[in-house]
Design goal:
about 40% helix, Rossmann fold, alpha/beta, seven-stranded mixed β-sheet, about 20% strand, five-stranded mixed β-sheet, single chain, globular
């Protein structure tokens, strides 16, 4: 049996990044993700890695750009306002087709908001995070074990598809402590990166990493090619957990801490004779459209449970092709829905209410 250690979600992310081969971390402290930076500050110098607290989030994301250009695994982390500051750099990474891992442990907003957990950066993450036509792979853990596992997966997907991956966790996931089996983490060999700026040794042409295309036809061609890659990712990498969905008549959609709350509510609804089930998207981009499309063929209603004013609900409606009513059960500003609140929404949906 694998040995388990008790860790915070933020610490699990940091340790998993090291296991995945990341030796370069650039960041800036902000609650509720500061433990990631603190962990890296202690660990990186001991293993020959680089930890640097940048002068700003803007500086940190550009340092990520530089290390990724050299073909190395690199990450940064922040919380909501800090990720906004990184937005331009995220777009530059996408424009240069550079792999990297970004972690957003979300807090309430907009603005400085508060330091309590939120899921209100969903639009920002799943729609790119910065300017231009691009996507990031967005992974949503709902346990500390998944914080570690999806960190490794994020690095691997980023390298495989030459694009940025993001761990989108709410503050609760970052701060809660659970047993983690780090020995169970499986890391695939890092792929060759012939495009990297590693020096030519006079044996090959120079590599250039750049996101500037002054000829519009060249930029158009690049964007179309990039979206062909995105289409492949949408077809092959979408992931979701289905819980008690085999005969469900009411489907609850939730991720992160909201999914854990909702699972309890589903169990209570079943005890009341209501056939409820849960769909938990693990990839927020690509969104698991097929799972929701299939569910829409046999459920009577769907409920999107969120720590926001309602963002994922739009993707739930699109994925279910508007064939069933989709309602919102939510808290905002750092508040978390209770199982009782979700159960009330399930009961209302079962009765045909909103």
């Amino acid at each position: 049996m694998s040995e388990k250690v008790l860790m915070k979600g933020n610490e699990a992310i940091a340790e998993a990044a090291i296991v995945a081969g990341c030796r370069h971390y650039f960041g800036y402290p902000i609650t509720p993700q500061t433990e990631i930076a603190a962990y890296m500050a202690k660990k990186m110098p001991k293993i020959g890695g680089t930890f640097l607290q940048a002068e700003s989030e803007i500086a940190a994301i550009n340092m990520v750009y530089g290390v990724s250009s050299a073909g190395l695994r690199v990450m940064t982390s922040s919380s909501s306002p800090g990720v906004s500051l990184k937005g331009e750099g995220l777009s530059y990474l996408a424009g240069a087709d550079l792999p990297a891992l970004i972690v957003n442990v979300q807090r309430g907003g907009p603005g400085l908001g508060g330091i309590q957990p939120s899921q209100s950066d969903y639009f920002q993450a799943t729609r790119g995070g910065g300017h231009g036509d691009y996507h990031m792979i967005v992974l949503a853990p709902s346990s500390v074990q998944e914080m570690a596992e999806l960190t490794v997966k994020g690095f691997e997907l980023a390298d495989q598809y030459r694009m940025t991956a993001m761990i989108l966790a709410d503050g609760t996931m970052g701060q809660m402590m659970e047993p983690v089996a780090l020995d169970d983490l499986k890391v695939a060999p890092m792929p060759a990166k012939p495009w990297a700026t590693t020096g030519t040794g006079m044996k090959r042409p120079h590599n250039i990493v750049n996101s500037l295309f002054l000829k519009p036809e060249e930029l158009e061609k690049t964007n179309f090619e990039r979206y062909e890659r995105y289409a492949k990712i949408q077809a092959t990498e979408a992931r979701a957990e289905e819980y008690r969905m085999e005969d469900a008549e009411i489907a609850v959609a939730a991720f992160g801490i909201a999914a854990r709350v909702s699972k309890n509510a589903v169990d209570e609804a079943r005890k009341m004779g209501i056939k409820a089930g849960l769909i938990r998207p693990i990839t927020l981009w690509p969104f698991p459209n097929e799972v929701f499309r299939k569910a829409a063929g046999h459920v009577k209603a769907m409920i999107s449970v969120e720590l926001s004013m309602g963002q994922m609900i739009e993707d739930v409606r699109l994925a279910s092709e508007c064939r069933v009513p989709v309602t919102l059960c939510n808290r905002a500003g750092g508040m978390i829905p209770t199982p009782e609140q979700v159960l009330e929404a399930i009961v209302a949906a079962a009765k045909g209410g909103c």
